[in-house]
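hey can u check if this looks right to u? its 596 residues, i copy pasted from the old doc so theres a chance i mangled smth
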Amino acid sequence: MSSTGTKFQFLSFNRPWLRDTGKDGFKADAIAGLTNATIVLPQGVAFAIIAGLPPEYGLFTAIIVTVVAAFWGSSRVMVSGPTTAISAVLFASLSSLALPGSEAYIALALVLTFMVGVLQLAAGLAGLGGLISFISHSVIVGFTAAAAVLIGVSQLGPALGLDGGEGGVMHRLLQVVGNMNDLNLDAVIIASVTLVSVTACARISRRLPNYIIGLALGALTGYLLGAQEAGVKMFEPLGAVFPDLRAPDLNINTMSTLLPAAAAVACVGLLEAISIGKSFAIRRGESYDSNQEMVGQGLSNLTGSFFQCYAGSGSFTRSGLNAESGARSPMSAIFAAGFLTVLLVLLAPYVRFVPVPAMAAVILCVAWKLVNISEIKHVLVASRSESFILVATFLTGIFSELDFAILVGVVASLSVFLNKSAHPVVAVGAPTKINNRRVFMNAELHDLPECLQIRFVRIEGPLFFASIEHIEREFRKMEAKDGVKTCILNLKGVGKIDLAGADFIVSEAKRARDQGHDVHLIAANPSVLNVLRRLNCLDVLGEDNVHAHKSEAIAANVALASDAICMTCSVRCFEECKDKLAPTSDPGVGNTVPMV
């Protein structure tokens, strides 16, 4: 299929899941959708507040973005919409350019969303889904933890009846501490009741609309305390129940200013969506296409920017609930958007009775759930390089800006990847018996005897310009340890060879031959062999020096080994050594007998 055909397939209205979702499947999807709608109603309001936007913008995002991403995405159960991470990045990126909640701020958010959609759609149509795998998951773990801290700190003030403050984490904390004399006891009681209610409902059942129950009990507490008369802030009525069709103000100067932030949000959104989609596809044994998901996310944000939506992505909480509720296809997310619209019409008049501290408590719960403590511990214990990526991303988010934290995390992730690529494993192997089978293991690590004439070397990683210096240094260390030998170079773990890699093999062969030895290769991959031929490497080595299997390479080199040295060798580590001549019992006798 041509690339043009593939792009049209990405945008096709004929989605595969429409054909294989029967009546029972749609019924299960409707039930899952209803459960999801009750969760996203307070979430959408909370996320919009985190983003610095009026509450209705979060709800519009949970309707429009959810439907488009579900229809054109790749995952069957992932639910997209507003998320805490993107809301936090959007606020961090735009709050320095305009007053949050103002008309200018809203206009910037819609332009940013449009740009995010264009970037994501272009990436998907260009087939860049594979590039996401080069960015470590630790970036998202560290970034999400930093976003959670910022969100939590930003809601401490409202939960205590104080102003939310401005700036980063440390600045907001200092502002809250400095204003503690103005603490409102009624606000604290309302926030506490809401917090306890949400936590208790979550413990009873994940399917309970715990946020709605918590907000309802918080509002009831506020009413009984007469909180509004005591100075506790209440929510303003929703500005609208349905979004208007309105094109973003695409000013070139504004777009150039927002480009770095748009790139950061697009990257965060794709990392979230693809990681969530892949994890559920693996669990459920379903296929998954990263490029199709990029197209779905791009179309959803692009469309949403015309319907008063801000940038969205996949939601792990809503997706997990969707799967647990029995969802069979993306129709569950579409049903959720429909039910949310109905709930919005029914409940919109009552939003003005919700105290701000109650919503602050809900957002604090959301922020706490963002911090994956078990995953952080696993990363810190399992890998130094991944720990570096996580800590660098997290600390940048805490002490700088969240959008810059993503950049730092991506750069750190790529740096670690490039460093590993430039330092492939180069190890000398030797045979040993395990369960009566001959296996090759690291001779140095396992203290295995080596052949006096043949060195068996395996490279795990790319043999290209960036790794040659490291590989050559390892080869010289081997020579310094036990001299020059004929080298059997196992290339089965080498995925890439460029001109510099081919030149290295040629130079090693010439170096060995100058000292009476040789270089043989183990290479069975046709693509590797074609590269070696194209780069004239085999013209120097000769086709006879290339072998498909270890046993073939070892047999050929043992046969060529010096009989005089083999006569005095007591190691005889290869099975093929039995075909060589053994030492005579009497040094003065000229005849020899085969080794048995």
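The radius of gyration is 32 Å.
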